[in-house]
Specification:
globular, Alpha-Beta Plaits, six-stranded mixed sheet, Alkaline Phosphatase, subunit A, eight-stranded mixed sheet, alpha/beta, 13 helices
Length: 390
Amino acid sequence: MAVLRRAIIVVADGAGCGGAPDAAAYGDAGADTLGNIARAVGGLTLPNLEALGLGRLTAIAGVPPASAPRGAWGTMAEASVGKDTITGHWEMAGIVTAQAMATFPFGFPPEITEPLRIAAGRGLIGNKPASGTAIIDELGPRHLATGELILYTSADSVLQIAAHEQVVPIEEQYRICEAARTIADRYQIGRVIARPFVGAPGAFRRTYNRRDYALVPPAPTLLDRLEAAGLPVVGVGKISDIFGGRGLTRSIHSEGNADGMRLTLDALGALPRGLLFVNLVDFDMLYGHRNDAPGFARALAELDAWLPAFEAALAPGDVAFITADHGNDPTTPGTDHTRERVPLLAFGPGIRPAPLGARTSFCDLGQTIAEGLGAPSLTGGESFLDLIAP
């Protein structure tokens, strides 16, 4: 029986809070996105997140532990293998990825690149792990001259294709990535990502026409269960891409954090019940991957400043969660995701403040929402609804 009317998940993409028990196994000992950013910039000022209990999750300079948080607070450790967007979001929705998706630390082999070259009808350059902005700066001039596609990867299970929008029209870029997705399926590659950019050498800029083509989840997710139960499921940002378009009754494209937060309020006003699942990508895409701690700090302040309007839009029977899908500590060497715990803040009218503890799976979030909205239970995870329900 449903005890909640609406659930809203806001994913601050990459905003980990350190302390993953297995961080060293991923080469991420000491990673603590929120804590290290605060130290790097001389402290953060996040009064609304502080009031919800953020300062109780890790040591964050400028964000002390609230003596009486307004929300419920805790952390979640990832049970899945990996530290990717897909594994993090899928686990929130009830799927634990037990086998690592394929990675290519030395670039893609010919059995992938040759059919991709044929399907694209264009040459390929790059084919190595790289920062997206760095490889565009490096190979963008050649791409402009030849039309060859810039192919690259990272420490995650991704095949990324960058192309200038005036050289390769955006619809052609999407067609090429759809063909690449078919090839990637044979090798268990988590995501194919279209990385369009514009500008001239020395001033290239990636656009929000990015599109992710993910593996289809191997089993029904929270989204599928809610949809099957007749509940609306709305995704804002790249949620539809992450779940292969499955389990959503509506998908809303966003162009960065500010647009995503605006669209979240719009979507909330039109959603009578069900789930609103939001990804705010700029933390990860613009700041974590670019080792930009001050930019990440500014984005956190923007999220904090938006929270009063968001909370004002919540009504009795609503529960909102702020969390992350992985870490992306901009103060650590490299530009890849970091294996960290993630925040778990729960709040809304009537939601009881309570310590939620250090939870051992992101699935706990999905299980709580399934129970609260009256959907069938997920196969994994432990609900904490009894701790927060009005």
